[in-house]
Amino acid sequence: MSDQFLDGDLRSSGAEADAKRTVQPAGPGEGPSPDALLDKPTSIWRLGMRRFFRRKLGVLGLAIVTLLTLVALFAPVLAPYDPIQQLDRVEEVQRRDPPSSEHLLGLDSNARDQLSRIIWGARISLPLGVSIVMVAIMIGAAIGAIAGYFGGAVDSVLMRIMDVILGFPALLLAVAIAYVLGPQIRNVLIAVAVVTLPQYARVMRSSVLSIKEIDYVAASQALGASSWRMLRTRILPNSLTPLIVLGTLGIAGAILEAAALSFLGLGAQPPQPEWGAMLAQEYTLIQTYPHLVIYPGLAIMITVLGFNLLGDGLRDAFDPSLNE
Amino acid sequence: MRTRRRLIAAAAAAALVITACGGGDEEPADTTDTETSTDTATDSTETSASSEAPSEEASAAPAGEGEAVTTVSNEAGCAEDYPGKIGSIEATDTLEVVFTLCSPDPAFLQKVAFIPFAVQPSEHIVETGGAPLENPIGTGPFALDTWNRGSELTFTANADYWGDAPAAQSLVFRWATESAQRITELQSGTAQYATTLSAPDYELVEGDENLQLLEDLNPNVFYMGFNNTYEPFTDKLVRQAIAMGIDRQRIVDTYYPTGSEVPDYFTPCQIENACVGDPWYDFDPEAARNMLAEAGYPDGFDTTIYLRDVYRVYLPEPQTVAQEIQTQLSENLGINAEIEVQESGAFIEAASAGELDGIHLLGWGADYPHVTNFLDYHFAGNEQFGDAYTDIVDTLAQGAATVDVAEAEPIYTEANNLIRDEVPMVPIAHGAAADAAVAGLGNAASPPFGAPQFDSMTPEGDSIVFVQNAEPISLFCTDESDGESLSACEQVLEGLYQYDLEGNAVPALAEECAPNEDGTVWTCSLREGVTFHDGSEFDATDVVTTWSVGIDAASPLHVGNTGGFEYYTYLWGGLMNAPPAEDEG
Fold first, then answer.
1. Which among A96, A167, A271 has CB closest to B326?
2. A137 and A30 in one domain?
3. N or C: which end of chain B has fewer CB within 10 A?
4. A290 at the B interface (CB within 8 A)?
5. Residue B194 placed within a domain
6. Cβ distance B429 to B263 under 8 Å?
7. Which of A95, A271, A284 is nearest residue B198 as measured by Cβ atoms?
8. How far is it, in rounded angstroms, from Cα B496 to Cα B91?
């Protein structure tokens, strides 16, 4: 979702005043004054990003995520070895060799270069986490929007289904779904998306409930706009901000849950270099070969930390109620 | 598999809805109570009110009273529909018991030595209603002192032991699930003996001068199996190509601990008649590729490697070895294999039912030291490998009816050659295992069968603390099958025979069990003057009564812990007087 789209959308509604209404005045020294806003409409995104870049931890999270994304994109170039090549077949090395100048993070139990596996692992974990959240947002947002917009029985039925899903421990439910569907990365995506979509549905529903009462929505309705058009052009675009913030934070959780499922043997299958699966294969060796456990663990930790910091930063920037 | 998953999905979804809607408030049914039928005793059981010598006056047991017995038999005898091997067991004298079999069993002594067939006083069995779960009374070198659930078991030395008295005055059993935890106990001096090291811990123990590594020679085999009802494993050439295309030496050298071996035969060579016939194929990838091309797969094919991620001595690193095999199949034969790790129970169930359409990685650890325990279990009509290889089945049937070891040798030579030719599986490794003990524990050894024999070990102090994997389930090992229960029972209980440190079946409570000419009648002369830990004297009635609890499904004392009595069913073909299969459901 680009700034231009949001800006354009808000302007195209012909409701600058409404757009201004959605922008909350920032604290002293943060962003333009209300007077300036009246002179030149500033999008919620511009304001938010300005606030975001003033928060060091959020910027650190963005840097980590950017770095990890680059690592994932350029894994074939960055990884010194093939992540599934057993190096004891071609070199004078032994499996579980500790870190050395040739193999910076050592070799795993199948004599594969661990650094290369962790680098390639970013290609699985990052897209998986993002995909899970995107799927969950798409489905959750649709459910929440329909429930919030139509209300009544539709709202009750949809939200009770969401409550049922929320009533279970997320990981346990994900394990059950992944077990039933079979151990595959695709099924991890489905399992984690299913258990996380209720939170997006609820947030979307809340947004829709508040936005649909705003004048420009009522005006559109009075002019005869269809429900679908109302949802698509008036309500959804103005409800996305909290979803994006929540989604960024959700990526961290999704990566963790996906790693947990792989750890339990329900996700990536050998020899895929997925971090959770790498941990699962080696965790019993933590006393004797700690490097086999520490590095994949660190990869997960740094990634989750990055997304958490980024998500916190976005939330602080876009949630006016948290402003100083 | 897919259908089962859908069923599970439906059940899980239903459970979700019910739970979320606040269902399930009703009191759950109590499933822990074991209700036993008290009116199913048969006329085939003779009883004796005391442990005196059996007499002709011994009358038929009244139904449901649970008394000591001097005879137990299958009511219908060795009828065609009776799957069991034992027709009757009879106390023919105070110190003599006769086992009458329905067919010869060359492994009779090796089976009898297994601890589920240990003997307890008939009075104790009767008093506890056939379920002395926590208070075993035996004749062994140690007597149970206390069982602090969740904490430890303590034993004291049996001063009246008929054999050599143990050096340790007390013995303590504790448990820790991880190998590293068990080693830490040794290093810190809180234990003297720890069982089942994980392979990476070998170096740790060998590098510590205060510890000793104890090699465990339990016969086992790890293999990759094929089901001959699924393409392309229907083709013998394909199976033979894989047999030649796997570098088994590399697998053993790289992934197995010291002492492990590349098998020349399915059965480990420490078992008689195991290693006769032609040895297994040499590694020859070029010939293997040619065979695969001849079979119509010049570029290999796609398949799946199924396994469970559970540590076993025969497969200490399941996923690592699976990936090695995956690599070898690809590089040596062009076979593209995906790995599918399954939940342990589901995997075993699917493998046993012949539902795995690819290559399955499984293994076997010996229950008793006889070649039938390896070959018959796997190749005498097991669905695991698909349609029965009738030539192998017929040959093994001959072997199972031949008691004399020398006479059986040519039969097993033929059986091994047929297995090599048909390749229902590829034997990959005989895995070595090891226990660890503190350096100061004298005569410490890990026997190939059964638990460590602590009575022959000499500690520096008065006691030995042993750390095993888990807490026993119960101490009525007639109805237990987990190793942790059996190892505790072995300190207290004894059977007619027992395993020595080399794994041979040697007399214990029997001075000898001798077969008749065709091996269908075994007469056991019992040891005189043996007393149980409660002071009662051991005699033939104790033997028959204890056996009747396990093997006679109609006995009022056939109660146990779960009532499964797995080893009686498994090792002796079936239970006496069992209800017809259609009535069981």
1. A271
2. no
3. C
4. no
5. no
6. yes
7. A284
8. 13
CATH of the domain at A140: 1.10.3720.10
B334 lies in a domain? yes
A91 touches chain B (CB under 8 A): no
Residues A128 and A158 in one domain: yes
* Residues contacting residue A285 through CB under 8 Å, at least 6 positions apart: A96, A109, A292, A293, B200
On whether both B250 and B357 belong to a single domain, the answer is yes
Can you give the residue range of the structural domain that contains A30?
A: 2-42
Q: Is A12 inside a domain boundary?
A: yes
Cβ within 8 Å, pair A180-B9: yes
User: Does B381 have pLDDT greater than 80?
Assistant: no
User: Number of structural domains, chain A?
Assistant: 2
Asked if residue B191 belongs to a domain, the reply is: no
| A183 contact B CB<8A | yes
Cβ of A271 within 8 Å of Cβ of B323? The answer is yes
Taking the C-alpha atoms of residue A129 and residue A304, their distance in angstroms, rounded to an integer, is: 10
Q: Summarize pLDDT for B40-70 with one digit per residue, the tens.
A: 333 344 444 333 344 333 333 444 467 899 9
Do residues A10 and A136 share a domain? no
Same domain membership, residue B511 and residue B413: no
| Average pLDDT of span B360-380 | 91
Q: Band of the pLDDT at A23, cuts 50, 70, 90?
A: very low
Q: Which residue of B has its CA nearest to A281?
A: B319
User: Are A146 and A197 in the same domain?
Assistant: yes
pLDDT in tens, B235-253: 999 999 999 999 999 999 9
A285 touches chain B (CB under 8 A): yes
Yes or no: say if B58 and B70 are a contact pair by the CB < 8 Å rule: yes
- B481 in a domain, yes or no? no
* A48 lies in some domain: no
The side-by-side arrangement of strands in the sheet containing B96-101 is: B46-47, B69-73, B86-93, B96-101, B521-526, B510-515
Are residues A127 and A241 both part of a single domain? yes
Could B5 and A182 be called an inter-chain contact, meaning their C-beta atoms sit closer than 8 Å?
yes
Long-range CB contacts (within 8 A, 24+) of A37-45:
A41/A10, A41/A11, A41/A16, A43/A3, A43/A6, A43/A7, A43/A10, A43/A19, A44/A6, A44/A241, A44/A318, A45/A3, A45/A6, A45/A7
To the nearest whole Å, the CA of B10 is away from the closest chain A CA by 9
Domain end residue (candidates: B429, B449, B472): B429
The parent domain of residue B549 ranges over 3-133+503-583
Among B429, B453, B471, the domain-final residue is B429
Q: How large is the ipTM?
A: 0.71
Residues of B in contact with A280 (CB under 8 A): 309, 319
In chain B, residues with a C-beta closer than 8 Å to the C-beta of A265 are 309, 341
Q: Using CB atoms, which residue from A269, A284, A288 is nearest to B340?
A: A269
Phi and psi, residue B406, nearest 5°: -65, -40
Any domain includes A65: yes
- Predicted confidence (pLDDT) per residue in A25-82, tens digit: 444 444 455 555 455 556 767 777 888 888 889 999 999 999 999 999 999 999 999 9
What is the rounded CA–CA span in Å between residue A136 and residue A147?
Answer: 16
Q: How many CB pairs under 8 A join A and B?
A: 74
* Token pair of B188 as six digits: 């810190």
Asked if A169 is an interface residue toward chain B (Cβ–Cβ < 8 A), one would say no
Is residue A283 within 8 angstroms of chain B, CB to CB? Answer: no
Interface with B, mutate which of A112, A164, A195, A291 (most B CBs under 10 A): A164
| Chain B interface, Cβ < 8 Å to A | 2, 5-6, 8-9, 12, 16-17, 19-21, 178-180, 198, 200-201, 203-204, 254, 309, 317, 319-320, 322-324, 326-327, 338-341, 343
Average pLDDT, chain B: 87
**Candidates B20, B320, B340; nearest CB to A109:** B320
Tokens 């939940």 identify what position? B343
Give the number of domains in chain B.
2
Q: Let me know if residue A47 belongs to a domain.
A: no
This model's pTM is above 0.95: no
Band of pLDDT at residue B231, cut at 50, 70 and 90: very high
Calculate the dihedral angle through the C-alpha atoms of B357, B360, B365, B371, rounding to the nearest 10 degrees: 60
